[in-house]
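Worked Example 4.2. Consider the chain below.
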Amino acid sequence: MSRSTRGVLAALAGLALGIPTIALAQVELKLGHVLTPDSHYHAAAVAFTEALKSKTAGRVVVKIFPQGQLGGEVQEVQALRMGTQDVLVTSQAAVVNTIKEWQIFDVPYLFDSVDQANRALRSETGRKLLDLVDRQGMVGLSWLSVLERDVVSAKKPVMKLADLDGFKIRVIQSPGFVKAYKTLGANPVPLP
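Applying the procedure from the previous section yields the following structure tokens:
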């Protein structure tokens, strides 16, 4: 949390206690993500920005940096932890080196459906997993909808498990994904 943000929070706490405070100055927060402006990450960033602006009567403004303008997901997690970035929308894969317990999400077919996954993340267990972020000097606000991963190839159809034998495939940078695709017979290449 930046020094200016701490100041705003302290001032807001002072208002809540009835302590006289000076007028609050506008604060700008940097929010980064790596996807395009038409993605679900960006839609979440816009909704967060609008809610925060509304709840603070415009005193807290969020500037959104899509498409990795602030770096890749791992770099953005590091920037968040160092205080040089204020807010981040990211995948769990970028966080598993920091929060080892999140490797559970690398298990293929952990859930039967997206709805089941989202129900699990809204449960008490999901809250406990999100609260693990706090130990790392960050604050977990919410889970974003879980999306399925597909195997897509421009070179050959992948219709059955045997089609993955020796198949070079790009996977997210997460040890669980690499191991899962190796187990399926593919040759996974972890990339951001």
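Confidence is low (pLDDT under 50) at residues 1-22. The beta strands are 27-32, 60-65, 87-88, 168-171, 187-190. Compare this with Example 4.1 before moving on.
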